[in-house]
Amino acid sequence: MSNCCHGHSHGGGSGGHEHSHGPSDASDAENFRGQEFNLYLKIEMDSLTCLNESEEGSGKNVFRAYEDRLDRSKFVSSDVDEELLFNIPFQGTVKLKGLLIIGGERETHPNKMRLFKNRPNMSFDDSRAKADQEIDVHVDQDGFIEYKPIVARFSDVHHLSIHFPSNHGNADNTEVFYIGLKGDYMEAYRHEVTIAAYEARANPADHKTSSLNQVNHFVS
């Protein structure tokens, strides 16, 4: 199942009303899509890993602003074979709604991605398990094709793993230039908040003296 949506389409309104799009409309659409695909800002980049990358740390470079998606100087290439595995921790909880994948030339472009939810620090051995969703990936040099995850299945994601097992040309290496992530984000409920709330509550054991004094005050 491909689970992809090709760009944006506009249907005519009632009565067959049609309208044209000028430069400002195109610019507005580009800006809007850039705002949609901004989950890269919510990734714990220091903890993100890409297994089998040929250059250490290069996997992090594919997560960037939508308007920089066509920058061909930033990419990751697989090393000993065609597989790549991204382990992506988020700062909070995400409802994943869409992905964009820009790969290399046809023979090095991924042809499939396998999504795993909330399985931190996955290895290639771990990736042999059944994925939460598998999506066929088409050759896309512009980030035009949007892939749709099953939202109900990816509604409470704090860690996402993306496995690219192969490419379109049976090449020895796979290249990825950009991964765009779209969805809703919710801040993590951190342990420090719980501690602060606990400490803010009065502990009777800490206030025995003042409580007794208060009772004596009312009796007198």
From TrEMBL:
GO process terms (BP): positive regulation of megakaryocyte differentiation; regulation of macromolecule metabolic process; regulation of primary metabolic process
InterPro entries, per the entry: Galactose-bd-like_sf, PITH1-like, PITH_dom, PITH_dom_sf
Start and end residues of each PITH domain: 28-201
Gene3D superfamilies linked: PITH domain
Top-level lineage group: Eukaryota
GO cellular component: cytoplasm; nucleus
Region called Disordered, residue ranges: 1-29
Family statement: Belongs to the PITHD1 family.
Protein name per Swiss-Prot or TrEMBL: PITH domain-containing protein
Species for this entry: Lymnaea stagnalis
